[in-house]
Each structure stands twice: as structure tokens, then as C-alpha cells.
């Protein structure tokens, strides 16, 4: 019976195609040529979730993530500091390009570290491989030799999918010049073994043994399948731009079979991640990016994972930072309730969404259902109190007892604060008035608010307060919407606001009553 969840289906395909193995290798990677954005994280999370699914079958899994930091600096991304200085390093390895921010050893390391430091927050801990180190220690010498021996075969494969065929002089190897450091050198001779001769556009000529000097690098469409073979990769996804007929995936399959005599990894195409309202695909080179840290400023780590786990890789999805945030929190909470049996759904939905929830958790799910703090209420608390007092009030309101629950309350308050300061529509932002201004209210509206004040002279529950609203409006011959508008006008100087009963309880009945007595 085919399993429902997409990552379980991938795990089943891997085992079926690769057979029973002591360890399965799953892979992802990127060139750290600029900010690694949330769209890039789709590959990371797709592999991580598939790796978890494989582990759940009892298999051992090696998750490798390659930093292609031996790639050349092709162009300077927009909004990059010291852009003019960086232009001097065009065509040089990004690992040998200085960090324009001045805080890391290189341009590449700056963007690598930003990702390496945040991934554990969402439960992702791959084995990082730096390709500059692999090439510099000549780890791929034998693979490079194979590519050179089969360069005519590779050229014919590439030409099948090109409008302009590559010439007979084409070479699968690129060389970083030992004098100028740029990838502008052309191979002029190969001795049939390990010695390459080259001439650079800067005029420098030399020869070297690529078992001893790591300045030779395979071109991208050859490098990718070479590493599949070298690392014995069993699963690696890629974006749809690599999945078109004749694209790098198609070419890679033919090269690994024809040149390296191996089989390609099990594959999964994934679609784009977009930002609602931003329009178009994110790109580090043009600077319109949102990072994982940006997402975690608004969403819990498990909700960040929920976006990816709950959407099949082949489907595009969007991150939202407007008032959709409130709904997304509730969608996650519903999935959590389904897992813990607190929400009635069909057996099929129970199986599917429980699996989504398991994959959304940073580690394993808690033994009992955590508290589910309302993001809307968290925003209300932040508007009323300073952060620490909002946290204390939230922990009390939501009944958090365990350390896990208290941490969740704390995170949501901090996320709500960031959201209010950076993304929230104005209607969610307010401050409690110190003096009541009832100048624009009718006599009936003023009387209704005075009646509300009398109710607040003694302790009252949220539910009872809510029910009393209708008696007040009926007594004063007011439409409910007029009563609520009058209350919000006096309390926060706006015509609309949070749900009134919990809002009053959150502010404190004594404080609200004191304000209403001024009418």
C-alpha cells in the first residue's frame, strides 16, 4: 500500500531503486554567491524531511550539504557593500574573495556561516562539505581524469541539447590561473594521465599535475554528476529550472552512466517558494530576498518547517507576513490537535496530517499536546504591556506549566512584537488611552459604556462579560456594532480593535473601569 505523505513516498522509492544498504546518502548544496534565502531552503528542507522518513524505516542516513565555494564570483549582487572593491575579484574563487562585511575570512564564508548557524534552530544538522577544500586537496583527481578521458562523449551529450554545438576543442576542465587567480585559463594540452598545460588570458602559461595541485575544476554540468558518483548519492532533489528536458539533470543522468558507470540519485523536482505581495522569484543577485532568520522572527521554528512539510515539493507556496500570519498559526495548531486526537477528521486525514506534524517538529513531538497561544492575543498583549510583562501575562493566560510550553509562549510574544513593529497592518497596532475622549459619542453610546463600567466593578469571567454585551446594547437601544465602535473609540482611539471581551480582561477590568468613569 502506497503511503500518503510525500517524504515517505520518496523513502520508499529510494529503498526500492537503491536496494537495502547499510547507509543511504542524501544530498543538497548551493553556491554561496550571495544571501541564502528562504527559497533556497526548499532543497534543504526537502532533503531533511526525506532523510527523516528514511530513518523512520530503520535505515541509517548520511545527509551531506555541499558548499560550492570554489565557484568563481560571476557578478556582484545588488545592495552589496564595497561593490567596487568586489569587482576586482570577478572570476576568482568566492572562497578567496574578501568578506565585504568584514566579519568573516571570505565572501563565501560570510554567507555559509549565516546558514550554518540558523539551521539547527529548525532541526536541520547536515554534514557540510566545502568544495574548495575537496578540490584543493585533489580529492577528485581520478574523477577529473575520467572526465578528460571521456571528454568527447561528454561533449556529444551536451551538444544534444544545445543550439550552438561546442567545438572539438571544448574541455570539461576549467583552471584557476596561478598568476592572476582568475578562471580565464584554457587547457592547451593533456598528457593522457594527470598533467595539464594551460594558457591564461593574462598571458601566463604553465603545466601542473592535478593530483598535486588543486587548481583544476570540472565545469558545472560535469561536476554535479561526478559528485553523485564520488559520494554515492542515493537521493538529491533540484529546482524546476534543472528539471526541464535537456537541463542539467538530464545531462547529469547521461554523464554519470556513460562516464562514471554509476546510476543517478533518486530525484524529486521542487517548485519555487515566493513571498506574498513581493512578486516573482527571489534572487540573491537582485537583492529581493527573505532569509530563514526573517521567517523565524515571525513564525515558530516548527511552523517554518510546517510550510515545507505540509506542501508537496512539486507545488509552489508563499510565505506571508501580513495578517495571514494569524491564520497560519491556527492552521498549524489544527494540525497539532489532529496529531493529539483533539480534532475529529477522517482516518485518511488523521494519517496524513499527523505525519506532517511529526515532520514539522524540531525533534520528536511532545508526549502531551502543548499549549496553543493565540497569535492574535499575543499581539494584543504586546500592545498593552512591555515584552517581559506580556510574556508573564501570556504564560498565565495560556496556562503554560512545562518549560516547553513556557518557551513557546515566550517565542510567540517575541514574534508578535517583531510582527507588529515590521509587518502588521495598522489595525492591529494600538495603545491604551490614558484619558477617555467621548466627545463624538451619542448619549446612548455613553450610557452603554457607563453600564459596561459598572459590570467591571467586580470580578467577571470573559464568557460572562461577552454575554452581558447583548443586554447592554438592548437596554440602550444600540446596534451591537455601534456599541463596539464606541468602546474601541474610548479605549484605543480607533473604531475597531481586538475581540472586546478578552481585550478588556487582558487590559485589566480595573484599568478599563477607571477609563470609562471619565465619560
C-alpha geometry = elongated
Give the strand order of the largest sheet, numbering strands 1, 2, ... along the chain: 1-2-3
Q: Give the overall average pLDDT.
A: 95
Q: Determine the strand fraction and express it as a percent band.
A: 5-15%
- Return the CATH topology of the largest domain: Rossmann fold
CATH top level label of the largest domain: Alpha Beta
Largest sheet: 3 strands, parallel
Name the structural class: mainly alpha
Total count of domains: 4
Overview of the molecule:
The protein has 519 residues and is mostly helical. It has four domains: 1-139 and 271-366, HUPs (Rossmann fold, 3-Layer(aba) Sandwich); 173-218, class i lysyl-tRNA synthetase like (SH3 type barrels, Roll); 375-428, no CATH class; 443-516, Arc Repressor Mutant, subunit A (Orthogonal Bundle), CATH 1.10.10. 45% of the residues lie in helices and 10% in strands. The protein has helices spanning 6-18, 41-55, 83-87, 107-118, 131-136, 141-149, 151-159, 220-231, 248-258, 292-296, 301-309, 324-339, 347-360, 375-384, 387-397, 403-422, 443-455, 462-475, 480-492, 500-507, 509-516; strands at residues 24-30, 61-67, 127-130, 173-175, 185-190, 195-200, 205-209, 216-218, 238-239, 269-270, 273-275, 317-319. The strands form five sheets. A three-stranded parallel beta sheet has the order 1-2-3. A three-stranded antiparallel beta sheet has the order 5-6-7, with no helix packed on it. Strands 4-8 form a two-stranded antiparallel ribbon. Helix 8 packs across helix 9 (248-258) and helix 17 (443-455) packs antiparallel against helix 18 (462-475). The mean pLDDT is 95.
